[in-house]
Amino acid sequence: MASLILLALTVTCMFSLYPSIALDPKISLPRSENEDLELHSSGMSVTNNTHLQNYIVHVDLPYGKADSLPFQELESLYYSFLPSTIAYAQRRTRMVHCYRHVLSGFAARLTPEEVESMAKKDGFVSAAPEKVYFLHTSRSPTFLGLQQNTGLWGDSNQGRGMIIGVLDTGIALNHPSFSDNGVPPPPARWRGRCDLPSTTCNNKLIGARTFFAGDTPEDTNGHGSHVAGIAAGNFVSGANVFGQATGTASGIAPLAHLAIYKVCSGPCPGATILAGMDAAIGDGVDLISMSLGTPSTPFYNSELAIGTFSAIQRGIFVSCSAGNRGPTSASLSNEYPWALTVGASTIDRNIRATAVLGNRVELNGESLSQPNNFPSTLLPLVYLGRTGNQQAAWCFANAFNNVNVRGMVVLCDDGGNIGRVAKGQNVRNAGGAAMILVNEEINGDSIPADPHVLPATHVSFRDGTTIKTYINTTPLPQATILFRGTIIGVSGAPEVTSFSSRGPNQASPGILKPDIIGPGRNILAAWPFPVDGTTTRATFNIISGTSMACPHLSGTAALLKTMHPSWSPAAIKSAIMTTSTLFNRDGNPITNQNKQEANYYELGAGHVIPSSANDPGLVYDIQPDDYIRYLCGLGYTNQQVTIIARRPISCSPGFAIPEAQLNYPSFTIRLTSFPQSYKRTVTNVGDAISSYTVTVTIQPQVNVVVTPNRLDFTRVNQQLTYTVTFSRAVTTPAIFQGYLTWASSRHAVRSQMSVTLT
Question: Which of 78, 162, 291, 561 lies 20 to 30 angstroms, CA to CA, from 311?
Answer without folding.
Answer: 78
